[in-house]
Amino acid sequence: MRVAKIVARQAAILLATFVGLLLVTFVIGRVMPLDPVIAAIGPDVSQEIYDRTREQMGLNDPIWVQFLSYIWAILHLDFGVSFFTKQPVVEDIARVFPATLELASVGILIGALIGIPLGMLAALNRGTWIDGAVRVVTLAGYSAPVFWKGLVLLIVFYAWLGWAGGPGRLSIFYEGLVPQVTGLLLIDAALAGEWEVFRDAFGHLVLPGLSLGYGAAAYIGRMTRSFMLDQLKQEYVSVARVKGMSERQVVLNHVLPNCAVQLVTTVALTYGLLLEGAVLTETVFAWPGLGQYMTKSMFNADMNAVLGGTLVIGTIFILLNLFSDVLYRILDPRTR
């Protein structure tokens, strides 16, 4: 019975959050100073065609009817047609999202593998030059503009040293050689056994991945340091030390597990931010992902595409929060 109540409560929260997200995107679509009819058929049409199109689009219905129609369409994965590409928005998103997913996944992997050890190192050496150096590095990564980091990486490692691939996801002479299975180019190239394509794709992925990963590592590192310092002040740490446990055992067996719940939340939400915040990185590196798609759509006043992308990112945030909550209960018995 208790488990059923917990599941019902979580489902209600999830549903309410999703409806709230739908309401926000619906309101944005209605308050924007853009006429969806003109965006769909162009300005050079007669009033009769304009009125008929407006009626067909349901814009003459009461606002609550429009909202219910909007929910019904979204539940059927109907985000409308992009006025820019002339394709269904859901097909456009399915085409470009794997590139963003691949980039953000590399970014969060770099961020977690670098940020967590850096934060631990700073916390265990609080007040020393090591702590100061880590804090400077993380502050720089967290504060520096995303586009600036991307441009510096391109200038130094691509234009000057030639160590990495340039803008884009793949060199033009490799395009079309790998059949799309997952949409993730590295995985598809490995599955096809096209290792030249794999190396080229990895070379193009390194710089944008580092650009995102540095920012993620900076944030995760700062949060890890804060979590560790809070735990190191607790009485159980002093008791463990009095019992003769080494500092390594204290950190790995006691402090780190007690930070795990907070770290999971931090990493999960940072991953969501990378999926959302890859817009500037994708623009700098000409990365053909969701961020660049939404940017082009915004410049072309293509609100169907912009709202569709916003809804996808919002849904990902909701699912990541749900995932974090589930891990809470697995990692920390006190929350059950």
Automatic annotation (TrEMBL):
<keyword id="KW-1133">Transmembrane helix</keyword>
<dbReference type="InterPro" id="IPR035906">
    <property type="entry name" value="MetI-like_sf"/>
</dbReference>
<dbReference type="GO" id="GO:0071916">
    <property type="term" value="F:dipeptide transmembrane transporter activity"/>
</dbReference>
<feature type="transmembrane region" description="Helical">
    <location>
        <begin position="172"/>
        <end position="195"/>
    </location>
</feature>
<feature type="transmembrane region" description="Helical">
    <location>
        <begin position="139"/>
        <end position="160"/>
    </location>
</feature>
<keyword id="KW-0813">Transport</keyword>
<keyword id="KW-0812">Transmembrane</keyword>
<dbReference type="Pfam" id="PF19300">
    <property type="entry name" value="BPD_transp_1_N"/>
</dbReference>
<dbReference type="InterPro" id="IPR000515">
    <property type="entry name" value="MetI-like"/>
</dbReference>
<protein>
    <submittedName>
        <fullName>ABC transporter permease</fullName>
    </submittedName>
</protein>
<dbReference type="InterPro" id="IPR045621">
    <property type="entry name" value="BPD_transp_1_N"/>
</dbReference>
<dbReference type="GO" id="GO:0005886">
    <property type="term" value="C:plasma membrane"/>
</dbReference>
<feature type="transmembrane region" description="Helical">
    <location>
        <begin position="201"/>
        <end position="221"/>
    </location>
</feature>
<comment type="similarity">
    <text>Belongs to the binding-protein-dependent transport system permease family.</text>
</comment>
<feature type="transmembrane region" description="Helical">
    <location>
        <begin position="96"/>
        <end position="119"/>
    </location>
</feature>
<keyword id="KW-0472">Membrane</keyword>
<feature type="transmembrane region" description="Helical">
    <location>
        <begin position="63"/>
        <end position="84"/>
    </location>
</feature>
<keyword id="KW-1003">Cell membrane</keyword>
<feature type="transmembrane region" description="Helical">
    <location>
        <begin position="305"/>
        <end position="328"/>
    </location>
</feature>
<feature type="domain" description="ABC transmembrane type-1">
    <location>
        <begin position="97"/>
        <end position="328"/>
    </location>
</feature>
<dbReference type="Pfam" id="PF00528">
    <property type="entry name" value="BPD_transp_1"/>
</dbReference>
